[in-house]
Amino acid sequence: MEFKVSSWLLLVSFCSFFFGLHPISGQCLNDQKSLLLALKNDLKFDSSLSTKLVGWNQSADCCHWGGVACDKAGHVTGIDISNESVSGGIDGSSALFGLRFLRSLNLAYNSFHSAQLPSGFGKLTLMSYLNLSNANFQGQIPGDFPLMKRLVTLDISSSPYYTLALENPDLKMLIQSLTGLRELYLDNINITTHGYHWAELISSSLPNLQVLSLKGCGLSGPLDSSLANLKYLSVIILDENTFSSDVPESFANLQNLTVLSLQACNLSGSLPKKIFQVPSLKTIDLSSNVVLNGPLPEFPENGSLQNLVLSYTVVGGTLPDSIGSLRMLSRIELRGCKFSGPLPKSMQNLTRLVYLDLSVNQFNGPIPSFQLSKNLVSVNFYQNNLTGGIPSHWEGLNRLQFLNLGYNSLSGNLPESLLTLTSLEDLELPNNRLSGQISKLTDVSSFRLRDLDLSGNKFEGPIPGFIFKLPRLSTLALATNNFAGSVDLDMFGKLEELYALDLSFNDLVVSVNANRSTFSSLSKLNSLMLASCKMQQLPDLQNQSRLMMLDLSDNQLSGEIPNSIWKVGNGYLRFLNLSHNKFSSLQKPYTFPFLLDVLDLHSNHLTGDIPIPPRRVYHLDYSSNNFGSSIPANFGNVLTSTLYFSISNSKVVGVIPESISNASSLHVLDLSQNALRGPIPSSIGNFKVLESLDLSVNMLNGSIPEQLANLTSLSFLNLSYNHLSGKIPQGSVFQALTELSFEGNRGLCGPPLKKSCDNKQMSPQVEY
Ligand SMILES: *[C@@H]1O[C@H](CO)[C@@H](O)[C@H](O)[C@H]1NC(C)=O
Ligand SMILES: *[C@@H]1O[C@H](CO)[C@@H](O)[C@H](O)[C@H]1NC(C)=O
Ligand SMILES: *[C@@H]1O[C@H](CO)[C@@H](O)[C@H](O)[C@H]1NC(C)=O
Ligand SMILES: *[C@@H]1O[C@H](CO)[C@@H](O)[C@H](O)[C@H]1NC(C)=O
Ligand SMILES: *[C@@H]1O[C@H](CO)[C@@H](O)[C@H](O)[C@H]1NC(C)=O
Ligand SMILES: *[C@@H]1O[C@H](CO)[C@@H](O)[C@H](O)[C@H]1NC(C)=O
Ligand SMILES: *[C@@H]1O[C@H](CO)[C@@H](O)[C@H](O)[C@H]1NC(C)=O
Ligand SMILES: *[C@@H]1O[C@H](CO)[C@@H](O)[C@H](O)[C@H]1NC(C)=O
Ligand SMILES: *[C@@H]1O[C@H](CO)[C@@H](O)[C@H](O)[C@H]1NC(C)=O
Ligand SMILES: *[C@@H]1O[C@H](CO)[C@@H](O)[C@H](O)[C@H]1NC(C)=O
Ligand SMILES: *[C@@H]1O[C@H](CO)[C@@H](O)[C@H](O)[C@H]1NC(C)=O
Ligand SMILES: *[C@@H]1O[C@H](CO)[C@@H](O)[C@H](O)[C@H]1NC(C)=O
């Protein structure tokens, strides 16, 4: 230990000697030291989270204290106590304002708990660098700020929640004094310029400006070309303002422009093509301007562009071949644009690419090889129209963590060189036409794969054994493929991180070993989807305290639905699908989980009482059962948030309860093919959002309630094959219906049936 400490010290002094880690500084003067100690005393900070302040004490030369810099004479010239968990303690009397030689002060990333900024800064007339960003000060910028006439860098950016006000002084008063500013950061400060146009004000006041960052300042447009007069301007960040204008092409005259960021500014017009030709440009971010359009220009040869970010715009057309000549390009984000056509082969020359997102476009044709892009970390081609195979050579892409090729039309096999990239954490290939067997791998203990989605393809053969051994696997989706063979759920029992498992719709036979059940001890499982898995036995899920989604539909499960199933997920179960099984009843007593919002029990053999659903349920399907009982009188009272309810074809008897009128959120109500009698309740007119009403094939009688004509959202109405009589109500609603059927009701008359009501007296009778 002693050896280690001394060799570390040796290294530090060696480095300081050769590389000058310490700024050259004199011995600290006593008054300066006292002021620093008084400052430390003023400040409230958490000593366990502080790395610098905590070490400020009397013994050492104060010029060597953490975050302190001095001049040769021993005056303190710089203090950096950013991110030191300071929570308060600077007021006008603070020792800070006695440090008259201070040129640089950084209090950023502390939490001054909405305290006001004190006056006193005006005394620090030598100050050239002031950084108060994200320090959680609030209120007015003090009136003496403009006295720091030597300021070169001013950063008072804040998070959107703790914002400083720039009203008195306002922007004009501030910058007309601080004419030497080269870097100005005012992110999230509400700037009111009292009639002065902010861009003209800045361009006429700050001739030396190089960096301008005014994100989320509430600026309005149009975006003024006067900024282009600032010849040194290099970084322009104006995200999240509302300019509602074009980007001035004159920005292309800024010879040293490196960053242009105008995210979410309601920009219109087409891409400013000339700006792409600026040789110094490294970052252009015009994303989230949803009407910004136009094609990409040809890129300059040997351009410096590193970040090309245009996601969520309507920029489109083809990606020019010349993109391949942007050798410095490391980030391309074109998600959700209007691009089409093939991916240029030249992209394989983008050797510095790190992050590539072309998702949600209409690119077609094959994926180029990224063999040379060894720095790639993330590649996303999700939702395009890409065809051909997955490129076969991924060797050496040892940084790749994320690959999403989902929702394309890719075919062929899953290349082994991709599967064996140990760096890969998330591989998403759903909804393609991929086929063949998955390679058998042996030692996967060092794999970082967390999410594997192969669903919606044509993969075949057994689920390869290595999958059960992937140490970090959290999401496994293999649904809707041709995987075959027998799988015991316990085979997944070693995947301790397993969060979501979907094996539905394959050719698998999934079994449960009730004796061992390592599966039931998996503690993180949230979603278990085993539809169509030929299961004959329910898995033991009692210990699954986090399970929220359970699909066991279309299996061979029978007997009682055990009441323990309602305790799965500690009462937090939200989705349960047990449809298409052979369940005969619900084991009593049972209490539905409070949060259940989808309950699907359709196509079983359920008999007896119709279960009263949980209150929050929004999708409830009891159809195709054998209840043989009537709908409980209070049933509608619990359906107040329900959007979908069907109990069609379930041998339901009795009447439609009046309480159904409380189910006023329903979009779909299907009571068809039962033995319901009595009238259609007139309160059905409450169903303002009902889109589909099916009461066909019952024994309902009486007249059709007038109120039906008030269901303005209705697009499907089937009242056929009942005993309804009287006049069909008139209403424009009925003309708008896409499907309408009254047939098989012998007593009905009116225009839709071409059966006049005149000759016969239609007195609606109600029979029970
Ligand atoms: C000053 O701080 C250092 C580091 O925390 C500590 O080792 C030293 O004992 C302190 N000296 C005094 C006089 O408090
Ligand atoms: C602040 O310090 C913490 C660790 O002490 C670090 O994780 C974090 O990134 C720092 N934040 C900034 C903005 O430097
Ligand atoms: C202000 O300080 C923070 C934290 O050290 C830093 O991230 C930020 O870049 C600084 N701002 C300027 C303009 O130097
Ligand atoms: C910005 O300040 C102006 C004037 O003080 C005020 O009317 C406006 O509501 C403020 N905007 C926000 C988002 O706080
Ligand atoms: C542009 O930057 C270069 C190098 O940083 C510098 O020499 C040159 O003076 C700058 N030009 C302007 C107009 O700012
Ligand atoms: C966005 O700009 C358009 C003009 O291009 C304008 O009609 C619209 O009102 C603007 N939206 C907002 C929120 O300012
Ligand atoms: C681009 O760079 C290459 C190699 O550095 C050089 O040979 C070529 O002349 C450059 N082209 C342009 C147009 O500057
Ligand atoms: C990649 O760059 C090289 C050298 O500039 C060039 O010869 C080649 O044609 C480029 N490849 C593609 C596919 O554009
Ligand atoms: C996808 O490509 C196929 C043929 O390659 C074409 O028929 C289809 O229209 C395309 N779909 C879209 C959405 O572009
Ligand atoms: C489970 O255990 C019982 C007796 O404890 C035994 O009869 C049965 O064969 C076992 N079932 C399986 C699948 O191992
Ligand atoms: C369920 O948990 C209980 C208590 O933690 C434990 O005794 C039991 O063995 C567990 N059952 C299964 C099947 O893991
Ligand atoms: C239909 O709704 C209107 C307005 O909400 C109401 O005045 C009218 O009485 C309703 N008609 C029927 C038949 O319920």
TrEMBL record:
Membrane topology: Single-pass type I membrane protein
Keyword vocabulary terms for this entry: Cell membrane, Glycoprotein, Leucine-rich repeat, Membrane, Repeat, Signal, Transmembrane, Transmembrane helix
Domain annotation Disease resistance R13L4/SHOC-2-like LRR: ranges: 305-526
Domain Leucine-rich repeat-containing N-terminal plant-type: 29-71
Gene Ontology, cellular component aspect: plasma membrane
Keyword Protease: no
Compartment(s): Cell membrane
Gene3D superfamilies: Ribonuclease Inhibitor
Predominant cellular place of this UniProt entry's protein: membrane
Pfam families attached to this UniProt entry: LRR_1, LRR_14, LRRNT_2
GO biological process: defense response; response to other organism
Signal peptide residue numbers: 1-26
Top-level division of the source organism's lineage: Eukaryota
InterPro entries: Leu-rich_rpt, Leu-rich_rpt_typical-subtyp, LRR_dom_sf, LRR_N_plant-typ, LRR_R13L4/SHOC2-like, RLP23-like
PANTHER family according to UniProt: LEUCINE-RICH REPEAT RECEPTOR PROTEIN KINASE EMS1-LIKE-RELATED, RECEPTOR LIKE PROTEIN 30-LIKE
Similarity annotation: Belongs to the RLP family.
The protein, known as: Leucine-rich repeat-containing protein
Species per Swiss-Prot/TrEMBL record: Cynara cardunculus var. scolymus
